[in-house]
């Protein structure tokens, strides 16, 4: 299996999305093609260390945890990630992929649960969306808006309504740390009356900027 550049692997409580609260083995791949205003993983921009896909699968097996999340940076910029996802699935893992929405999702194996960012204007990266990606997102996946302001909120609500996103996927709204308060976002969401889920970062409530163990 090919080599990948990784920043770290670790075990933690899944802090986000529909698997929040579950123990999870994380693989953070290195490198990102975007530069979001609120990025909290800038340390993943540099190449990191090289590890083979087989070694990563062995690390995951040794963790004894079924759930594994491949994150970044942006995992899909490394072509070897496709073999890694298939290899993990073959070994019985439940695989989550966190991706920034700028890369095509077409080749991601169907059984992988995709957590896809929809970058808002406040991220500075709204133009990065890969245009056909809505086709590859389904009910098992999650489309995540990280919101920096009320303008971002209104932008996201408009898109959710215009594209009827809640009819084919799970939509999450999350406040960008240090940009928008969770209380204000909750208030706005209640007024909007949309079947969109408020997402807070559980791992940050537990450990601040530390990731887990
Ligand atoms: S896509 Fe993610 S890792 Fe890349 S710059 Fe944006 S927040 Fe940071």
Main β-sheet description: 9 strands, mixed
- The assigned CATH architecture is Alpha-Beta Barrel
CATH topology: TIM Barrel
Determine Rg (CA atoms, Å): 17 Å
Distance between the termini: 27 Å
Strand line-up across the major sheet: 3-1-2-4-5-6-7-8-9
The helical percent reads 10-25%
User: What is the CATH level 1 assignment?
Assistant: Alpha Beta
Bound molecules: iron/sulfur cluster
Instruction: Name the CATH superfamily assignment.
Output: Aldolase class I
Number of domains: 1
Q: What is the 3D form? A: globular
What share of residues are in beta strands? 15-25%
- Provide the succession of SSEs: EEEHEHEEEHEHEH
Tally of separate helices = 5
Beta strand count:
9
Which regions have little confidence, pLDDT < 50, spanning 5+ residues? Answer: none
- Which structural class do you get from the secondary structure elements? alpha/beta
Quick check: average pLDDT? 95
Descriptive terms for the model:
213 residues; TIM Barrel; nine-stranded mixed β-sheet; globular; binds iron/sulfur cluster
Overview of this protein structure:
This protein is of the alpha/beta class. 24% of the residues lie in helices and 24% in strands. It has five helices and nine strands. Helix 1 packs parallel to helix 2 (81-90). The structure holds iron/sulfur cluster (SF4). Residues 32, 34-36, 39, 41, 44, 72-74, 100 line the site of iron/sulfur cluster (SF4).
